[in-house]
């Protein structure tokens, strides 16, 4: 795992914990936020394993039903396909859960924490400017109406492009990966489009 990729995930998990109108956050407060994000990941790993077990049981049940209750071949095939899909979901959940111990270990590295804290600080101190750019880049959408996770992924990538001198291609690609991991199937395409408009807007301002 790349340090900055881990830092972005920590920042994403931390963003929802930031108070709306705080005084200037101190480093110790930011550290506490990041620690809470790590604990959130650990809890999600346990939930993922429990969900995987339930989905495997459901998959097994559907396989049995396909043998005993299906009225024809097509119905049986449909039940088997449904069972396979559930099993695949369970496997994916287990895979995510198995990544967490490594994630937690690496998140304690100084470079990971430093960048996560840097991101969280920028998100808080420059929130107004970041949201203004995003609002101008949205087409037929309002920033406040987006799902919180999508909104924060957009904010992280925009912050990187505006204030942290991250190449736009890296910022956008990493945002897409975050969306694939934490949001729904369609969000990563939406986020990719919005961030490309953000980049064009930022480039136009420099010209």
Automatic annotation (TrEMBL):
Cellular component terms per the entry's GO annotation: cytosol
Stored Pfam families: NusB
Keywords associated with the record: Coiled coil, RNA-binding, Transcription, Transcription antitermination, Transcription regulation
One Gene Ontology term from the biological process aspect of the record: DNA-templated transcription termination
GO MF annotations in UniProt: RNA binding
Coiled-coil spans in chain: 42-69
Superkingdom assignment: Bacteria
Domain NusB/RsmB/TIM44 as annotated: residue spans: 108-198
Coiled coil recorded as keyword: yes
Described purpose of this protein according to its UniProt entry: Involved in transcription antitermination. Required for transcription of ribosomal RNA (rRNA) genes. Binds specifically to the boxA antiterminator sequence of the ribosomal RNA (rrn) operons.
Membership in a protein family: Belongs to the NusB family.
Identification of the protein by name: Transcription antitermination protein NusB
Species of provenance: Oscillatoriales cyanobacterium SpSt-418
Gene it is expressed from: nusB
């Amino acid at each position: 795992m790349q340090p900055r990729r881990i830092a972005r995930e920590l920042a994403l998990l931390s963003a929802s914990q930031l108070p709306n109108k705080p005084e200037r956050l101190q480093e110790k407060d930011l550290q506490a936020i990041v620690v809470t994000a790590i604990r959130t990941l650990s809890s999600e790993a346990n939930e993922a394993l429990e969900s995987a077990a339930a989905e495997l049981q459901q998959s097994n049940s559907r396989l049995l039903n396909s043998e005993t209750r299906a009225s024809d071949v097509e119905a049986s095939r449909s039940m088997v396909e449904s069972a396979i899909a559930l099993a695949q979901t369970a496997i994916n959940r287990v895979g995510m859960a198995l990544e967490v111990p490594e994630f937690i270990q690496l998140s304690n590295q100084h470079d990971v924490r430093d960048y996560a804290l840097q991101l969280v600080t920028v998100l808080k101190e420059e929130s107004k400017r970041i949201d203004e750019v995003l609002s101008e880049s949205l087409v037929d959408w309002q920033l406040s109406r987006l799902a919180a996770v999508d909104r924060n992924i957009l904010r992280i990538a925009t912050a990187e492009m505006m204030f942290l001198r991250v190449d736009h291609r890296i910022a956008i690609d990493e945002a897409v990966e975050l969306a694939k991991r934490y949001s729904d199937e369609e969000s990563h395409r939406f986020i990719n489009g919005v961030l490309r408009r953000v980049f064009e807007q930022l480039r136009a301002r420099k010209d």
